[in-house]
Amino acid sequence: MGADPVLAALAAACPAARPAQPGDAVAGMMPRFAASPATIAEASELLRTAAAHDLAVVPRGGGSKLGWGAPPRRVDLIVDTSGLDRVLEHAAGDLVVRAQAGVTLAQLGEVLAGAGQQLALDPPPVPLAVARTRGGSGAGAAAGSEAPSGANGAAPQWRGATIGGRLATGARPSAAAAPAGASAPSPWLGATIGGTLATGAAGPRRLRYGTPRDLLIGITVVRADGTVAHSGGKVVKNVAGYDLGKLFTGSFGTLGLIVEAVFRLHPRPASASYVTVDCDGPDEAYRAVAAAAGSELAPSAIELDRPARGQPVRVAVLVEGDPDGTAERTGLMRALLGRGAATQPSAPGWWGWPANGNGRSGRGQHAEAQPGDARPGGAADAGAGTLIRIGFWAAGLPQILRAVDAAALAAGLDPAVGGSAAAGVIYAAAGPDADPAAVAAFVSGLRGALARGDGDARPAPAPVPDGPPVLASAVVVHAPPRARDLMDLWGPVPSLSLMRAVKDQFDPGHRMAPGRFAGGI
Amino acid sequence: MIKQLIPRMTEICGPGGVITDPAELRTYETDGLTSHRVTPALVVLPRAAEEVAAVVAECAAAKVPFVARGSGTGLSGGALPHAEGVLIVTSKMRRIIAIDPASQRAIVEPGCTNLSVSEAARPFGYFYAPDPSSQVVCSVGGNVAENSGGAHCLKHGFTVHHVTGLEIVTPSGELTWLGDGTGAAPGYDLLGAFTGSEGTLGIVTKIVVKLTKIPQLVKCLLAAFKTTGEGGNAVTAIIGAGIVPAAIEMMDALAIEAAEAAVSCCYPEGAGAVLIVELDGPRCDVERECAAVRALCEQAGATEIREADDPAERAAIWVGRRSAFAAVGRISPAYIVQDGVVPRTALGAVLDKIAELSAESGVRVANVFHAGDGNLHPLVLYDDSVPGAAESAETVSGAILDLCISYGGSITGEHGVGVDKSRYLPKMFDEGDLDTMQMLRCAFDPASLCNPGKIFPTPRLCGEVPGARRAPHPLVASGQVDQF
């Protein structure tokens, strides 16, 4: 081990540097080294050393979303943030928390729940460990995630029984906390603050609380050359200097290493309930979504789900607040959504899970973590299906659903569809065994429809001559390797030349997660 | 040099769109921060995005600096002109291009006033949430540049939370879109980074904003306290109860005195502090929260509480607060409007320290602030006919910022850095921080022509690794850039 001079240099910067192991692979690419800095100073020295030896670096948090984005063009060093695992400051009276990047959402949630507070993020999950044998029916996987209320009866901060159950019991993440029947701990229990920021992951409650960029108020990063930089601060209202937090959120590790973050918090609502209604086709679903979104009842999330073409579109609305207000608004919401609407105290099984079942197997079956895998990310990468995120103007929902169907039909695919309809983000998902060529044809056909802007994907009532040239996008969040190789995961990106200029400034050697991001950045 | 640009600029903007007369040029010498004045070499008033792009392309080709200006209400000198540069005024670009209530979006031009967007959306049941107190005149383009807030940003957020697409002219003169209006566009969040960059990364020519549903009920509560400390305790109790009001504002005795003199707002007599709490949302929630806030204020020692839920009564409560800045002119010949932020829980301690500073220096300070988010607006009063008074006021004003920093706060919550506070920025951020921020600047504006001299005390020279410089930078050598 000591024989490798590069490893020796890395170890001098960061004692927890080691040769890479099979579990350190990223999208099939095997790095040479892995290191886990324990302090920001170590992280800085580590990246400085990596720069001196021209090493390509891929940051890794919990590894739960390591299969997202394109495979890196090259990777020499994995920087694992799991050593940066301290919640540094929870100023409950100020509704602010400062924590290191390796802190998991679960760990942070526990600290905040003690003060009746939350980081209002419910990011899309990521490889959930559900044994394939029980994933045959969507309901099977879903039953495990039928969300129990949190410790104080609030909506779960993260969907899924594992987190909710664990919050209720205060147990540490462990295999025992996983849903009954699961074969391994849910890898996404390990999702970290840093990884959530780097991927910009958000879930149903983005409608009310926004996405990670909206809740981040301060950030500390280590640049590709080892320089430590921060922006923002510990106060919510702050316009001093450029906001680097926005730039780094969703940058997939391509601009530098996120080491610390400050978030604004929200009170945990005392109660939550869900109003559900089954709709016959895109237009009826849109009417339900629009009625809920246009109401004065302040819903926290409005989700829809359609497991397969021709099936009813299920719509569910989350109402949160104090118990009396929630009860009253839930009743009003149910009346608004009309006959067939029902209320339930917990989330429907399909809630917020980006679809991934190809109709046949329902949703929530993302990947299978093999017992004994050192890194869940590796297994996730191997077992995941295809997940496509579609962003659109909310009024375009029926047109978008029809465009999805048309592209899928033409490609011979029947993806599950669902997501945050009122916030203008839905997902289409195909199972891991879908024909890679069909997946690629679907993505390309869908992008073609969105780009044509021939009215299908335009917002109602009419095209806007002076608006943005394209009003929707389709990004492949993750895909099995064979499908991935056939597609540009990111698709067309506006202002790509400015993005390249930003990359060239922050990482002139193109060593940070090279090739992972849009446009090959 | 700049004279040579006039014929081409006239071609682009039309004869009525170019100002060269010295007296007319002087009307643009300052924005809302009147202590800084620079007469621009040339003013242009383009009518459309393409004209802005053409103007900027001409400037870039001639290496002439340019500064964008909306309505000129900014309070940090962000739109202060450049003496050898072109001032690009967006006031002719005022179209509301589209209102799409079903998508909860509007597309507007940068010269639109903030309030006009809400007015256009109102018939559909929506409004544009960021509401800086200058909203009647300030432009949405300027709001984007400054990431403007307002009294109601406690609950509803700042401009950056309500903008989902920007058409900009880059500093090289190209038209491009940042974001697609969805809030979920792929790629780096340049939209987020651009918002609040104070006009240094380009010029906004179209804006897609989010529209917010007009709440079912708005209730406003005014509570009088003997001291700001008691008022502060009430704020802590409200937040601690898990209530997020739309706004929580506080004024101290001196600010109340000024407001009474100016607009006879009839706040409770003898109050040492008044708290204005506004709640909005579904009727059932607002009613209950209002009762809870009332009880918490009583527990904190409120001497009088008033409540209003119709627009006229609410306006009567707000009139004192809204007029506070200007009203101070009634009790002092001159004053500095400061803008600092502290963690909300530090408000009491910081107010005590400000009182100490005031007592020690003999400089009076009136406090008006967004108590819910710890954003202080101390008004530092002085008599500009007394020699040395302005300097003493400036010293106290600066000491207040030091105080904010020492409590982990910020030197500006909503007014921006501009020219006014660039010297304070290094107190919040070290060299590595500022260098890193300026990498973004270098990516957008390597020639440093776009609103130069703002925000950063020391410009970063682009295209070089810091510390590795061995010869003068080419721009310095050729005399295009000064190095300090």
Short description:
The complex is a heterodimer of chains A (521) and B (484). Chain A has helices spanning 5-13, 40-52, 105-113, 138-145, 161-169, 193-199, 206-209, 212-215, 244-248, 281-293, 323-337, 376-383, 397-411, 436-452, 481-484, 496-506; strands at residues 17-19, 33-35, 57-60, 77-80, 87-91, 96-100, 117-118, 216-223, 228-232, 256-264, 266-267, 271-279, 301-306, 313-321, 342-344, 386-392, 416-420, 425-430, 472-478.
Describe, in plain words, how this protein is organized in 3D.
- The complex is a heterodimer of chains A (521) and B (484).
- Chain A has 521 residues and is of the alpha+beta class.
- Helix content of chain A is 29%, strand content 20%.
- Chain A has 16 helices and 19 strands.
- Chain A has helices at 5-13, 40-52, 105-113, 138-145, 161-169, 193-199, 206-209, 212-215, 244-248, 281-293, 323-337, 376-383, 397-411, 436-452, 481-484, 496-506, and strands at residues 17-19, 33-35, 57-60, 77-80, 87-91, 96-100, 117-118, 216-223, 228-232, 256-264, 266-267, 271-279, 301-306, 313-321, 342-344, 386-392, 416-420, 425-430, 472-478.
- In chain A, the strands form 4 sheets. An 8-stranded antiparallel sheet of chain A has the order 15-12-14-13-17-18-16-19.
- The relative contact order of chain A is 0.14.
- Chain B has 484 residues and is α+β, with helices and mostly antiparallel strands.
- Chain B folds into 3 domains: 2-89, 2-Layer Sandwich (Uridine Diphospho-n-acetylenolpyruvylglucosamine Reductase, domain 2), CATH 3.30.43; 96-213, Uridine Diphospho-n-acetylenolpyruvylglucosamine Reductase, domain 3 (2-Layer Sandwich); 217-406, Vanillyl-alcohol Oxidase, Chain A, domain 3 (3-Layer(aba) Sandwich).
- Helices cover 34% and strands 19% of the residues of chain B.
- Chain B has helices at 6-13, 22-26, 49-62, 114-121, 140-146, 153-156, 190-194, 228-240, 253-263, 283-299, 311-327, 347-361, 389-406, 425-428, 431-444, 474-477, and strands at residues 18-19, 42-44, 66-69, 86-89, 96-100, 105-108, 126-127, 163-169, 175-178, 203-210, 212-213, 217-225, 247-252, 273-281, 304-308, 334-337, 340-341, 365-370, 375-382.
- In chain B, strands 12, 13, 14, 15, 16, 17, 18 and 19 form an 8-stranded antiparallel sheet that branches.
- In chain B, β5 and β6 (105-108) form a beta hairpin.
- In chain B, α8 crosses α10.
- The model of chain B is unreliable at 465-476 and 480-484 (pLDDT under 50).
- Classes of the chains: A alpha+beta (521), B alpha+beta (484).
- Chains A and B meet through β9, α9, β11, α11 and β16 of A and β5, β9, α7, α8 and α10 of B.
